[in-house]
Structure prediction request, 280 residues.
Amino acid sequence: MGGETMTIYLSDHATFNSTQELNYNVSQHEQANHEKLTASNRTVLRFIARYSVKYAGASHLKASTIAEGTEKSERTVRRILSKLEALNIIERVTFTRPKSGGTGANIIVIQPFLSERVADRQAAENPRHASDEGGNSRKEPSSKREIQNYTNETGTAMLRHAIPKRLYDVMAPFFEGDVEGLYNAIGTLYKSKASVDPSILCEEHSDYTGAFMNVMRRFKEGYIRNLNGYLYSTWQAVTSTISRREARRESRGSTSGLSDWFAQELSREISQEVAEGIAT
Prediction:
């Protein structure tokens, strides 16, 4: 029973949709922190990643287990975990035993890699918009001061004109009175999409809003702590799915065109053979 309870908690803390996403984000963390991470730091991070596959990004590991697996002292491991957490590579979540109420080993959650963390909203500085009335795009705010002006002057009314209607209608109700929260979420959407396939227009695919609704439901139920991080990895997966779907569609179209060409050529050759037979 205890094992079942633990797996439920781990599934709630999973931050990625696949092992591939997990490995990619770990690699990005290592590259971005190349000068800050020692060989020992990388060894511990990779050990954690290997135990975070079933529930991609989440594992329940004691410091002693990591120490034994990496051949390091528990003191060293605890110091490395603190460093990884300070670099926003992992998050340690305190686990409370359901029956006894005691504190167990931490759940270790590998965080989605977000470049330029401090300026996360910059991802939406030059998004590809299309307004419902025409193709005119509007420049979104790109600084704290501009966002604050939005809040003080016209709030959500301004964002309503800066965000594609389909996205605004779905996302805005979840951020009533929180213009900056809405802006950050939109920035995360454009940033995650651009990291996979910048050519896709998110307002043309309901997959994005559907995924957003599912994430917000889990967030309101208390299952998600890092909202923008979870949205980022979720929307990355959505973009990958759409990109593969579009590629298959194009492939089928080109195959169909090739088949039509073969059919026409075959018909022409048969017609010629029939004509030659009649002539003889």
